[in-house]
Specification:
Layout (H helix, E strand, L loop, with lengths): L11 E4 L2 E4 L3 H22 L2 H25 L16 H15 L9 E2 L4 H26 L4 H25 L4 E2 L9
Antiparallel strand pairs: 1-2, 3-4
Length: about 190
Amino acid sequence: MKIYTRTGDQGMTGVIGGRVRKDSVRVEAYGTIDELNSFVGTAIALMDPAKHKEMIDDLTEIQHELFDSGADLALVKAPEGMDLSFKINADMVTRLEQWIDRYDAECPPIKRFILPGGSPVSAALHVCRTVTRRAERLVVTLADQESINEEVRRYLNRLSDFFFVIARAANVREGKDDVEYKRGGEVFK
């Protein structure tokens, strides 16, 4: 099989059920999720399996779910006779909430806003958080224009919270303090 097909040379790309412009909001949304998946892979590559095995396992599961999210967003119309159901579901959102609570229990109480940084792993996870927020904004725009799996939007919303908390937990495991924003007062009490 050849990697190149030349079918996209005119600015169109294939989605499930048709073709769309490569600069459509749909392609931007699932393309940003693909970008996020690469950053998650980078964060995993920075992790020491002895300190971060559970995190690596959770993040690897998230990588699969990001691929599933992209597939859900690439579905424009199920081809005739094909039963395509969405892959992202409410149980995944609930599981993310459980993971957030578990990692948050490792962290000291938060008093100020946190700047990305501390350890390299934490900084990489903050990049994941911000790319997730961008993907979520694109999915919100897409949902205003076209039909989508609404669970993807919920999943991304929760996922950014997950990345915030796991970045803090990574600092704890690396023996680094969070980098606090010092120009404001204590906002969390």
